[in-house]
Every structure is written in structure tokens, then in C-alpha cells.
Amino acid sequence: MLFLPRLQHLPLPITTSASNLLVIIAVFLFLVGVWCYTTYKLTCQRDISNLLTRYGNHLVPFVLIGLGVFIILDSASLTPLALMVSCLCLIGLIKMIQASQLKTQSL
């Protein structure tokens, strides 16, 4: 039996025409410009700039990790248990790398 993937799982460039793809790319680039302009205007505000300078480095990893977890769970790529096990393994690897870096720095 021939396996045919469902249409909703095909990559976007395959399922759209060239003119629609150009519109999608133009809208994407326009919205990236809107985000860049908005962040520029926000960082020009002194209070917001100070807040981002103080807490930005600590906040960004949690936002990115949360976004990644949401994407993985929403796409059903991993079960919650498998995701938790992989996170614990990554934490263990990071701890091992940090320990070896501290060891080499002390030498």
C-alpha cells in the first residue's frame, strides 16, 4: 500500500503557488520590521531599558525554553514524560560540562 502524507503536514513552499509564497514572505518580512521597530522604541524608554538590562539575561532563557516546550508538546513530538527525561539528561550534561570547565580553570 502506498503511503501518502496528509496535506497538512507538507512543507509550506510545496503546497502554495509562487505568488502566494511571495505574499507570505513579504508579510513575514514586514512583521519582522514591525517587531524590530517596536523593540527599538521600547528600549528607548529609560525604565524599560534599565529593566531589560538588569533582568534580560536571566529572563530570556526561560522564555526560550518555555517556547520550545510549548512547541514540542503542541506538535506531539514527545510525550510529557519523554520531554521531562530529556530535560533532566540535558541538565546533567550541562552540570558535567560546568564541572569540567571549573576544573580546567583552577589548573
Describe the structure.
- There is one protein chain.
- By secondary structure, the chain is an all-alpha fold.
- Helices cover 81% and strands 0% of the residues.
- The protein contains four helices and no strands.
- It has helices spanning 12-15, 18-43, 46-75, 80-106.
- The mean pLDDT is 84.
Please render the helix and strand layout as text.
Layout (H helix, E strand, L loop, with lengths): L11 H4 L2 H26 L2 H30 L4 H27 L1
- Encode the helix/strand succession as letters: HHHH
| Residue share in β-strands | under 5%
Give the count of helical stretches.
Answer: 4
Radius of gyration: 21 Å
Helix content: over 70%
Ends apart, CA distance between termini: 63 Å
* Unreliable segments of 5+ consecutive residues: none
Count of distinct strands: 0
Query: In one word, what is the shape?
Result: flat
Average pLDDT, rounded to a whole number, is 84
Counting helices, strands and paired strands, the structural category is mainly alpha
Largest sheet: none
Please summarize what this structure is.
By secondary structure, this protein is mainly α. It contains 4 helices and no strands. The longest helix has 30 residues, at 46-75.
Write a concise keyword list for the protein shown above:
mainly alpha, 107 residues
